[in-house]
Amino acid sequence: MNTLLIAIASGLVACAGVGCRTAGNSASRPNANASIKTNSTNVALETELQAIINRAESANAEADRILETNTNESLSSDQLEKMRSDIQDREKAVQQDFLRFIRAHPNYGGGYAGYGDFLLGHYDELGARDQLERALEFDRANPTVYNDLANIYGHRGDVKEAFNYYAKAIQLDPNEPVYYQNFATTVFLFRPDAREYYNINEQQVFDKAMVLYSNAMRLDPTNYALAVDVAKSYYGIKPWRFEDAMRSWTNALNLARSEIDRQEIYTHFARIQIQAGNFGRAREFLDQVTEPQFAALKNRMLKTIRTKEATGA
């Protein structure tokens, strides 16, 4: 990828409106155009704040569009530099809008919550934490703030505080799937901390994470990316839960958006069957993989099958 495009991706683009909590985690805020939830009855203030949030999301969407459509380096360096500069200017303008709003309404927690979420989406975790903690001084019933603080504590600080904040976010808004997804990911990644905090064993930690994931899927049943994340989680569970893993990947298959998605899932089916020792079934799945981009992977998996069959492994 062009280095300027990488710079756009790493320095200017928010990951779906909130900072990525930790490596390997897809933690995010609710959908990209979601409002910052508040308990204010001041409609005028909420409308003004939402307009700023919408401008921020519009800039993010434009940056995402550039990333999605120009990974083949079809744009020149000058074009990419111009786009980078335009996006940066829009982000700076939005930041100034947030600061002006806070100066005009210093006792309104929603302003700090919105600005903190904006900073977190642009990887300024320390700045975000300051704003979010200020938001709690004015409104201790804002689930978005607890979710964002949990994202930060899961990346730096005491991860057990992340457990507390995710639980609080869910208590305040039990119908937001992202809170369950983020909580599940954090429990799954920080298993020793979860064992100690909840006084449970590792298998019970896995159970807790998968229940949280299932709640996220229940609330957002058509989310393909979430379904794939949940299915991939089974690779980290030992001993293997073959039937559960197959069911999870089958759910993802039912939500697949393209033939490429479907064939990639067939490779996951085959991998699970190889681990289970069902080599014939694995071959059946691999027979359905015909896209050239999966040819090398398919050949490696077939070689693995032949080796295991030859050695009786």
Question: How are the secondary structure elements laid out?
Answer:
Layout: H1 3-12, H2 43-69, H3 77-104, H4 109-121, H5 125-138, H6 143-155, H7 159-172, H8 177-189, H9 191-198, H10 202-219, H11 224-233, H12 242-255, H13 259-276, H14 279-287, H15 295-311
Helix pairs in contact: 1-2, 1-3, 2-3, 2-4, 3-4, 4-5, 4-6, 5-6, 6-7, 7-8, 8-10, 9-10, 11-12, 12-13, 13-14, 13-15, 14-15
Walkthrough of the structure:
The structure is a single chain. This protein has 313 residues and is an all-alpha fold. It folds into 2 domains: 3-165, Serine Threonine Protein Phosphatase 5, Tetratricopeptide repeat; 221-313, Serine Threonine Protein Phosphatase 5, Tetratricopeptide repeat. The protein is 72% helix and 0% strand. Helix 2 (43-69) packs antiparallel against helix 3 and helix 3 packs antiparallel against helix 4. It is globular and about 75 Å long. The chain starts with a helix and ends with a helix. Mean pLDDT is 86; it is low at 1-35.
Quaternary assembly: single chain
Helix fraction, binned, reads over 70%
Give me the secondary-structure category. mainly alpha
- H/E element string? HHHHHHHHHHHHHHH
Estimate the mean pLDDT confidence. Answer: 86
CATH class call of the largest domain = Mainly Alpha
**Assigned CATH architecture of the largest domain:** Alpha Horseshoe
Shape: globular
Provide the number of structural domains. Answer: 2
Let me know the largest β-sheet.
none
Quote the distance from N terminus to C terminus.
Answer: 41 Å
Count the strands?
A: 0
What portion of residues belong to β-strands? under 5%
**Using only CA atoms, what is the Rg?**
22 Å
Low-confidence stretches: 1-35
CATH fold topology of the largest domain: Serine Threonine Protein Phosphatase 5, Tetratricopeptide repeat
- The tally of helices reads 15
